[in-house]
Structure formats: C-alpha cells, structure tokens
C-alpha cells in the first residue's frame, strides 16, 4: 500500500513525456491549438462573451456600464494566471538581459548567429527559462480582446442588423426579447457610440484620452528597470509605452466607447495585479526614473 | 527589435481584421413610385428608372464620410425626396430631383479631390439640390418620415419625433417619446396615421399615439418587447403591431386599449401588411403568417420558406411575395402554398421590403455583387444595379 502511494506521487511529480517532446513545446502546441480553435469557432467566442455580458447586465439592474465593468473584472480574474505567468516570463527575460554571461555570448558570437542561437538555447535550458514565456499567455488573450469589439458592438446594437445578429448569439436561457435593446447610457456616455464631450465649444474625446493615459501609466509602471543600455527588451518596452497609448487612443476615438471602458478598467486592474505581485516600478513615472 | 516590431504589427493587423468581422452597418432601404426606384445604400441614395435600372441621379454627388443612408426615402406629393443620414452627420435632407442637371458631373476622386480642396485644380461646383436640411437630431435616421398635410413627422433614433414644416424644414415641434426611461427609446419605424393621430412605435417596447394638430401624446402603451417595425391600420379599423415578444397585438386607435391576438414562433420584425381583411407578416424564425382580422384567426398554418424574414411582404393581386434572408424570393398564394419565385444565386442577403414599380418587383440586397435586382412578372431577372 505504502509503495503504491509513493509510486503514484512520483508519477504526479514527473509525468513522462514522449521522447523529443518538452513541456515548453507542449505549451506552445496548446497555445497554437487554442488560437486555431478560437479562429475556427470565432462566432462561438463572440457568442460566449455576448452571453456573459448580457447575463451580468440582467443581474445588475440593466445598466450596461456596470455590466461591462464587472465583465472586465471577470475577464481579468479568468486570465489572472496567464497574466501572472506573462509577468514572470517577462521578468525572467529582463533579468537575463542584464546577466553577464548572456551579455558575454552576445558579444562573443555577434557574427555567428547559429552559434549564438545555440548558446542562448543552452542558457534558457540551464536556467529553466521559456523564451516564449511572456508572449504565449498574451497570445491566448488576443482572441478575447479581438472578440470584444464585435461583442460590444452586437450587444449594444444601435442598428437593426446588429440587433438581429445579437438575437442569434444569445443562448436560449436568456430572455433577450425582454432585455433588448440594452440600455447603453452610462454616466455621460452612450457606450454604443464613440465618446465626445463638448468642453469650451470643443468636442473632446475624454474617454479616449483616459485610455491613452492609463495605458501609458500601466506600461510605464510595469516596465522593469534596466541597467544595460543595449537591453533590447527595455528598448522594446520603451517603444511600446509610446506606441500602445497612441494606438489605443485612435482605436477608442473610432470605436464604441464601451470598448474604451473595457480598456480603462483593464489597465487599472493590470496595475493592481502588478502591484499585488510587487512588480510595479513607481519610479518609472518620474522623469528619468528608469535610468536609476 | 525588428522581429518584435513585426510581431506587434501583425497583432495590430489581426485586431483590425478580426474586429472588422462585425460586417456591414445595416441593410439598404428601398422605396418606389410608378417609374422611379429610390435606394438608400450606404454613402449614396440612388434614383433609378424602374423600367431598365439606369441611374437618374444619386445623392450626394461625392461620397461624404459624414453621410450614410439606410433609412427609407420618402417621396412627397410635392416631388421632394426626403432622406435621412445615419452617419456622423444626422441630417434629414429634402432633395429636389428637379434641380439635378440632365448630365451629372463626373465625381472627382483621390488625388484630384485633394488638389481641388487646396485650390490647385478646377473641379465641378457642388450641386445645390437640397431644398432644405434639418440638422438638429442627435442620432441616426433609421426610419423614413411620414408626410402629412404639409408637415413631416420624422422619427429619429434619439427618441424624438420631429415635426417639421415640409416647405422649409423648419422645426414645428420636438416630441420626446420616453415612455420607459430605462430603455433606449429609439424610433426605427415609419409612423402611420388614421387621419387624426400619428402612431409611432419605439424600441422602448411602446406604441405612441400623437394628435396630428396639437402634437400632444394621446396615449402610449407598452408591449412585452421592442417594436422595430411599424403599426398597420387594418380594414376593421384597428391597429396591429408585432414585437420581439413574439405576439401580434391589436390596438384601439382611439384609446390604446390592446390585447394580443396571436402568438408567433419568432420575433416579428417587419411591419405587417394589410390587404382586404387579411394581415400578412413574418418573423425572424422564417415563418410567414396570414391572419384574418374579421374572423380573428389564421387563414392557414404558418409556412416557413427557408430563412429569417425581416422584410415586410409585398402583396400582389394573386399572391404575396416574400424576400428572405437567404436572398430568395417566394410567392405564397391564398391557400398558403409556397413557390420559389426567384432563386438568388449569388448568396446576397435580402432584409429589405421589396417594392413594385413599372411592372417590376425590386429586391435590395446586402453583401451581393449588386445592390438592386429587378424581376419581371414571371420572377426572372430583368436588370440589376449596378448593371452586371
């Protein structure tokens, strides 16, 4: 009896994989599988998100703004482990950029790309780092992000065609006829339309600006400090902290403001998650803070 | 670095492509008089000769990113064509077809248009074909207005019924229809009248009756679901309306007293059509109904040709024509026998109510090679627009 238990425990700890198949490659295959499945069943992905939003909407007194905020929190909770893994992966890669051995092989094999790749793989193996550790979880989240745009557009439905499409996406357990059209008014906004606020005679996209600002703050706060001036990851992070807010600003200016609400809440929750994991660098918000 | 840039670019491209899967904004609208068909389809409203599909004019001459047209054009007794925009510019425009020149100037596109805008090229003067433009609405024009006694009753998606002077587009009254303030009170259907009152349906689940002279709301009554179609005044003097609650409802036009008279299988979208004592209507589950208002019963069991039906049927002398989402057109006779009248080969989708003009039945399509198809009396293709 005792022997059997020990044997079982050993099996749980180290399940044997087929020869030539590593855990990392399995993860990669799984991620690709999820992406392919999401692409093939794209309408189902949209339907799941729509139904989740409408279900929450029916629970919270038919206020789509509150439903959307709760929905965003739900999405962040579901993707919490993926985000955590992404953060760890990014941190490991960042540390590696500052590693002396890593920098040495970069210099040593600068002209021999094949050898450099071999050496990089060796270091990854020795230190248990998955070079895709930060991007695979992100990839899994992309279908959710992309599906959100049509989901919000269908759910709020400001045209006959969108309401007709909505009727086909909603599962039979929801009394959609009683709920439609969803109340898209939230604070000063109509969540089905791009937001503009008239200030001093000017039409200002306050929400889109808030999206850009929170994206900038989130990217800056979550950027690990780097001492290496040739650190490619840091350079990319810096680039992203500029391009992402601009990109999301234009996205928000043109799409339904419901999507902008998602971005803002998602950014705030992302900062909270980083803070809870002790990975927020408040100094990055100060001018020149990242150089220290 | 370059690889990461490529990765980010691919992701952005994928985001734009996948988010673009939302598809078309809405389906086209169609109206016709004896010789002319009016098609509101995206950036333009087209006036076409119903006999051969040749274009008489289109509005605007140049595509304008602020203007999008999906509401049914309305031709007034004075000959004006009233069109409403669903674009950023929520204007209601009275176009005077008499002001179009015999030959339309060629549209200016691309680079030349840019040079025109900075005065480095000679370009055609904009055509001033508008009799007036009303720009005070806050949302899209989805429904066509009702022209009545020199006034225009124009329902807007902002929840207001705008009463305008037909002569100059001056606002006479703005009637806010907010029976259920918790729901968006979008007005998507053309109003109906009995000569004393105007009846307006709303997505807030309500039907409103408004006095034609005083513009006061006489009554408003709620149903169990949104009402995307309009009401119809039947031969028994009662109003009938369908809703997303899957019920046909009968109203007393004077008091608003109402009761459900028929349960349907799916959402009723299009406005029912009255022909004698019969009401014809469909639902989005694809069923077609024929209801006798005198006997208060169905003439025969509902028939289901193939796919969803959002369009109102077109009643002809010996049958009723149905355009289904699949793009096919069916003829239903008075015994409920269904015949495939036109088999759409190009997978275009028909959501728009067909119209009859100059001996042709006109079908507007979404996601097709052509916007409009004319069928002759045997259900054979006569012409398409644009011409194939």
The unreliable regions of chain A are 1-11
Strand order of the largest sheet of chain A: 1-2
**What is the number of helices of chain B?**
2
Tell me, what's the shape of chain B?
A: globular
Instruction: Look at the structure and give the CATH class of the domain at 26-135 in chain B.
Output: Mainly Beta
Global mean pLDDT of chain A = 80
Mean pLDDT of chain B: 91
Distance between the termini of chain A: 59 Å
Task: Give a quick summary of the entry.
With 292 residues, chain A is mainly α. Helices cover 68% and strands 3% of the residues of chain A. In chain A, strands 1-2 form a two-stranded antiparallel ribbon.
Overview of this protein structure:
The complex is a heterodimer of chains A (292) and B (388). Chain A is mainly α. Chain A has one domain (25-291). Chain A has 13 helices and 4 strands. Chain A has helices at 2-13, 23-40, 42-59, 64-78, 80-97, 100-108, 113-127, 135-156, 160-169, 176-179, 206-221, 232-254, 257-276; strands at residues 185-186, 189-190, 197-199, 202-204. Chain A has a two-stranded antiparallel sheet. A two-stranded antiparallel sheet of chain A has the order 3-4. In chain A, helix 2 (23-40) crosses helix 3 (42-59). The radius of gyration of chain A is 23 Å and the shape is globular. Helices cover 7% and strands 36% of the residues of chain B. Chain B has helices spanning 2-19, 110-117, and strands spanning 29-32, 36-41, 44-49, 55-59, 74-75, 81-84, 92-95, 130-134, 146-148, 151-155, 160-165, 171-176, 192-193, 197-201, 206-211, 217-222, 232-233, 239-242, 247-251, 258-263, 273-275, 278-282, 288-292, 297-298, 314-315, 320-323, 329-332, 338-342, 355-357, 360-364, 372-375, 381-385. Chain B has a domain at 26-135: Thrombin, subunit H. Chain B contains 2 helices and 32 strands. A 4-stranded antiparallel sheet of chain B has the order 1-2-3-4, with no helix packed on it. A 4-stranded antiparallel sheet of chain B has the order 5-6-7-8, with no helix packed on it. Chain B is mostly beta strands. The chains are: A mainly alpha (292), B mainly beta (388).
């Amino acid at each position: 009896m005792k022997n059997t238990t020990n044997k079982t425990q050993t099996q749980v700890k180290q399940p044997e994989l087929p020869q030539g198949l590593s855990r990392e490659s399995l993860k990669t295959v799984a991620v690709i599988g999820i992406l392919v499945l999401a692409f093939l069943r794209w309408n189902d992905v949209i339907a799941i998100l729509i139904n989740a939003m409408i279900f929450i909407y029916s629970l919270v007194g038919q206020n789509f703004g509150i439903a959307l905020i709760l929905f965003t929190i739900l999405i962040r909770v579901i993707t919490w482990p993926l985000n955590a893994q992404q953060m760890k992966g990014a941190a490991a890669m960042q540390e590696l950029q500052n590693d002396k051995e890593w920098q040495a092989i970069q210099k040593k094999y600068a002209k021999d790309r094949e050898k450099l790749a071999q050496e990089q793989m060796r270091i990854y193996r020795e230190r248990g780092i998955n070079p895709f550790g930060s991007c695979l979880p992100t990839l899994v989240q992309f279908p959710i992000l992309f599906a959100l745009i049509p989901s919000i557009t269908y759910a709020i439905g400001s045209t006959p065609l969108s309401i007709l499409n909505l009727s086909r996406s909603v599962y039979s357990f929801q009394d959609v006829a009683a709920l439609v059209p969803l109340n898209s008014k939230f604070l000063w906004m109509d969540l089905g339309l791009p937001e503009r606020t008239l200030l001093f005679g000017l039409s200002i996209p306050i929400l889109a600006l808030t999206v850009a600002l929170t994206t900038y703050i989130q990217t800056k706060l979550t950027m690990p400090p780097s001492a290496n001036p040739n650190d490619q990851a840091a350079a990319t992070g810096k680039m992203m902290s500029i391009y992402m807010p601009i990109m999301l600003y234009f996205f928000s200016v043109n799409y339904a403001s419901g999507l902008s609400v998602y971005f803002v809440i998602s950014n705030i929750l992302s900062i909270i998650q980083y803070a809870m994991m002790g990975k927020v660098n408040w100094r990055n918000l100060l001018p020149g803070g990242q150089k220290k | 670095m370059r690889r990461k840039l490529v990765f980010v670019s691919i992701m952005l491209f994928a985001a734009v492509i996948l988010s673009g899967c939302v598809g078309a904004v809405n389906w086209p609208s169609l109206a016709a008089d004896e010789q002319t068909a009016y098609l509101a389809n995206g950036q333009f409203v087209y006036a076409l000769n119903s006999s051969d599909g040749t274009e008489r004019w289109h509005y605007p001459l140049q595509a304008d990113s602020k203007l999008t047209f999906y509401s049914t054009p309305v031709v007034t007794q004075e000959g004006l064509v009233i069109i409403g925009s669903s674009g950023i510019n929520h204007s209601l425009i009275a176009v005077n077809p008499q002001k179009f020149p015999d030959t339309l100037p060629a549209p200016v596109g691309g680079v030349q248009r840019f040079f025109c805008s900075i005065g480095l090229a000679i370009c055609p003067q904009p055509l001033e074909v508008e009799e007036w433009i009303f720009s005070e609405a806050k949302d899209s024009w989805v429904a066509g207005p009702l022209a009545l006694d020199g006034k225009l009753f124009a329902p807007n998606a902002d929840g207001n019924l705008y009463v305008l002077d037909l002569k100059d587009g001056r606002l006479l009254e703005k009637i806010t229809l907010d029976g259920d303030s918790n729901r968006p009170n979008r007005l998507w259907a053309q109003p109906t009248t009995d000569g004393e009152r105007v009846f307006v349906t709303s997505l807030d689940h309500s039907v409103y009756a408004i006095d034609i002279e005083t513009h006061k709301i006489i009554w408003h009554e709620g149903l169990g679901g949104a009402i995307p179609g309009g009401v119809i005044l039947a031969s028994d003097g009662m109003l009938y309306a369908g809703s997303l609650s899957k019920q046909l409802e009968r109203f007393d036009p004077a008091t608003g007293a109402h009761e459900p008279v028929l349960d349907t299988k799916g959402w009723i979208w299009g406005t029912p059509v009255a022909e004698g004592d019969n009401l014809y209507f469909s639902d989005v589950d694809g069923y077609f109904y024929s209801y006798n208002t005198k006997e208060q019963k169905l003439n025969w069991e509902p028939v289901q040709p193939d796919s969803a039906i959002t369009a109102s049927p077109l009643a002809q002398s010996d049958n009723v024509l149905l355009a289904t989402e699949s793009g096919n057109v069916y003829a239903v006779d008075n015994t409920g026998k269904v015949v495939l009248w036109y088999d759409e080969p190009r997978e275009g989708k028909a959501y728009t109510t067909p119209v009859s003009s100059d001996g042709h039945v006109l079908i507007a399509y979404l996601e097709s090679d052509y916007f409009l198809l004319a069928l002759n009396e045997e259900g054979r293709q006569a012409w398409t627009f644009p011409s194939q």
